[in-house]
Amino acid sequence: MTTRNYLSRLLTLGFMAVILAGCSNERASDEQWAHSDLSSYAAAFSQDGNYVLVGDTDAPARLWDIEANKVIYSWQNMPDAAGTTTLVGFSADGKVAATVEQDTIVLWQVANGEPMLRLSFPVNIKAIALSQHGDYLMLALYDRTAVYFDVIENRVLKIFEHDGKAVNSPINQLINTVAISPSGKYALTGGDDQTARLWNLETGEQLRSWKHENSVNIVDFYPKGGFVITGAGNGQTHFWNMVTGEKQYTLRTSAWPKDMPLPNYPSFKTTTSALDFSPDGAYLVTGHPSQKLCLWRVADGEKLDCWQVSRRQALRPGVVLQAVAFSPDGKAVYSESGNGIGQKWLLR
After folding, report:
1. Residue 254, exposed/middle/buried by CB under 10 A (0-12, 13-18, 19+)?
2. CA–CA dist 183, 322 (Å, integer)
3. CA-to-CA distance for 105 and 155, rounded, in angstroms?
4. Percent of the chain at pLDDT above 90?
């Protein structure tokens, strides 16, 4: 090995050590609440940031008033038998909530806690998204399809599939995540074929397909319009222009210089498990399976801060961030972890 190569390798390893060390800053939250007895399967915040719905393990799903730290309602499919809530969600207007137990969806009125509708499907449900008013659903099913469902008419309007061409497979691939645009005109799906796809909900036409390095596990629309965000498991998270299809930037949790390509090491690839945009659309917060929360500037993807959430038990280090949200005034961030802990972080 030449002296030049040796020094270059030392510098690279040293830089990586600094990056990894900088990612381990565990920070105490400004407020903390136990929202689950032991652990939770799913969590979702209402868009106004006032409520969080937590899908507990072998217990009813619970709707919490965040700041009051009070359970408003306890919900489950069968009142006399506790079941595991596998998915939860809200309509964008915050008036309708959804709980999923395997193959069954119940829609609830947030105002009074009463059930609105119960829907059963022939296969289990992997992901759910509600429209602005909760009158339409986008569902990823374990039969390798996604369906656009009219709640009022109780029927499937469109069926979407991810063929296996992108990964050289002769069969359709599982769809992992779905989203409906604020306008209700478009949908996003992400699947095991390593693509995120943009669809026209009226015609069912595929408008865009974006390839990733791994299975796509998270998709969402920028609430101000014109852009989408997609992320792959153990891969990168990207911000895309809907109209042109071009990538605006890639979120970099590491301190690696933006003018240099990211090295192909696992430490530079971080799964995004949750995200939310600030009320004014200027900032983005992301949650990750490694206890990590990060704050970003939307305009250019610049990382402003990253920190690690505290653990419930010192000997159980694995903490998956299931949901994140900005407070209504945009001055704080809420997080919900798979360890059943909700936390509040004042932005400094």
Report:
1. buried
2. 25
3. 14
4. 71
Q: Domain holding 106: CATH number?
A: 2.130.10.10
pLDDT 10s digits, 310-325: 766 554 555 889 999 9
Residue type, 71: V
- Range(s) of the domain holding residue 158: 3-346
- Compute CA distances 244 → 143, 182, 211, 299, whole Å: 32, 19, 15, 17
Q: Note the pLDDT of residue 293.
A: 94
d(CA 313, CA 278) in angstroms, rounded, equals 31
Q: Any residues with CB less than 8 A from the CB of 26 and at least 6 apart, and which? A: 291, 307, 308, 309, 310, 311
Least Cα distance to 292 among 112, 98, 62, 24 occurs for: 24
- Distance in angstroms (rounded) separating the CA atoms of residues 109 and 330: 26
For residues 81 and 2, give the distance between their C-alpha atoms in angstroms, rounded to a whole number: 69
Confirm whether pTM is higher than 0.85. yes
Is the pLDDT at 229 greater than 90? The verdict is yes
User: Binning pLDDT at 50, 70 and 90, where does residue 294 land?
Assistant: very high
Using DSSP's 3-state secondary structure scheme, residue 13 falls into helix
What's the number of domains the chain is made of? Answer: 1
The SS3 assignment for 130 reads: strand
pLDDT of the residue at 317:
52
Sheet strands (E) in 25-95: 31-34, 40-45, 51-56, 61-65, 70-75, 87-90
